[in-house]
Amino acid sequence: MIYDLIIIGGGSSGVFAALRYKELHPNKKFLIIESNKTLLRKLSVSGNGKCNFTNECLDYNIYNNGDNFKFIFNNNPLDTILSFFNKYNIKYYIDEEGRYYPYSNSAKSIQNILINSLDKDEYLLDIKVIDIKKYNNFIIKTNLDKTYEAKNILVSIGNKNYKTLGSDGSLFNKIKELGHTFTDIYPSNIYIKVQEKNITNLLNGLRFKSRLYLYNDDKLIYNESGELLFKEDALSGIVSFNISSKLAYLYKNNLDNKPYIIIDFINNLNYEKLLKEYNNSKNKYDYLLGIVHPSLVNIIKNNENPIKDLKSCRFNISSLGDFDHAQVSCGGINTFELNGLESKIHKGLYFSGDILDIDAPCGGYNLSFAFLSGLKVGEIIE
Questions:
Q1: Three-state DSSP class for 72?
Q2: What whole-number distance in Å separates Cα of residue 260 and Cα of residue 196?
Q3: Which residues of the chain have pLDDT under 50?
Q4: Which CATH number fits domain 2-186+324-380: 3.30.710.10, 3.50.50.60, 3.40.50.300, 3.20.20.70?
Q5: 10 Å Cβ neighbour count for 169?
Q6: Which entry of 47, 114, 235, 244 is 20 to 30 Å from 137 by CA?
Q7: Residues 6 or more apart whose Cβ sits within 8 Å of residue 132
Q8: CA–CA dist 295, 206 (Å, integer)
């Protein structure tokens, strides 16, 4: 059989592409080939299982390299996603920060509904693609020594993050053999390793409502407030993950990187007022205890100006965390080799989702792009 479309990768982008293609071309044959034992494996664990699937502030400017994918965000992208969910009777709600979740608070609800919308002969599970060749059509070889032929193929295999969930970059070399190249790839939305282990070890496991400032060569790049979590040798938590997105983009673009982070542990308190009160206090140790956690007090209590240290504590960056724990990857298929989402090298070869050179901070943005790019491919393939 020659399929009209074969989708390599049954994650969010691949499944959304399949469902839109099925809707528009009910008489055409398509097949999803997925290496996991179920479709939408990564989606099922997103958002700690709750699935923050989109955001009310959906705009290409939020994304690293978003300028090259403006066309994905035309015609109200939020409405596009919500209309798709409405079509499958998936109820949802929006929280106070503009993040959308399924009403069930379970990513598995979305996973099951979408899988049930596909016929059993429209996808194969637990099968790994090991080669792709282009002749008149595309020939796809699997690890079971079986081949499949298609007029069009969509590669939506994810990137290098979450190896345990099937995204490991193992097919990248075969994509390169087809003539495509990749920009440098870094883990993103991940903890940030720092040099000051003497401090992070003492604060390990503690959380602080803080504001973080990312500097590169003494130039302010980005800042954000939120919950910061200390690990033994790293800064973690959502605010750190979002900082890591900007940091990964610096590394990817080969800038002269001398990055560091300044932490304001008491962002909502006035420095001058605190300093005056501290200098006038009879028991300075107790005064500090009234502001921050005792473990942090014990680190700064003997410093010349502990209040200044609480407002501007510097951490020098060693590296980003590893790919196995990263939520997304920064970098991917070189945008200059694409006409929209189709290869300029091989007509009928498409890419969508995480494999593309675009990423964003936490908040449902990366899933949104996976959805939108999948839907777009499902619409443009004949």
A1: helix
A2: 11
A3: none
A4: 3.50.50.60
A5: 18
A6: 114
A7: 8, 138, 139, 140, 141, 153, 155, 171, 174, 175, 178
A8: 9
